[in-house]
User: Fold 2'-5' RNA ligase family protein from Rothia santali.
Amino acid sequence: MQRGRSEPREAGPDRSPTLGSGRCYLSVVLEVPEEVRRLVAAGGREPADGGVPAHITVFITERTSESDPGDQALLERVRAACAGVGPGPVRLRGAATFRPVSDVVYVRVAEGAERLRRLHRGCAAVLPDASPFDYHPHLTVAQGLEGAELDRVAAELADVEAVFDAVSLGVFTGDLSGWRRIGEIALRA
Assistant:
């Protein structure tokens, strides 16, 4: 059961189609290892985006003051939602784009996507979904760039491939100005 979905936000050169100005979020992410960060940084993405290292977003929810139970309570809710999903390999292969819907270039998750979908569904069962889009596991490598720059990044990363083990999730809270880690969740079957 998905609890709710936000409406798409107007995306612009520096705006996220998911994140809104003046709003606070909780984000659950699979961080990618340093060697993968360096690999995709060559294509245009900085190793850390507002305090969150390069990652695959598993889930994002908006935090509202009237219903927010606090960092630790949210962390425990997410931990319970992810229980029973164990660690495993993630293979990234090739670049793609969400254009014309969103000016984003990403690296595809070729292996491990079902594990990420299970984690997403678990979170969506207990928290409202802030993303206006259906969940599609991916590693964003460029957004907020002009069309020619997006094309360049996609071409440079067309044949990229990397494999790493998903063993834990990072949980962050923040907004468009920056993010802070509030915890980590080990993946255990």
In short: The chain has one domain: 24-186. The longest strand covers residues 88-97. Residues 71-82 form the longest helix (12 residues). The chain is about 20% helix and 35% strand.
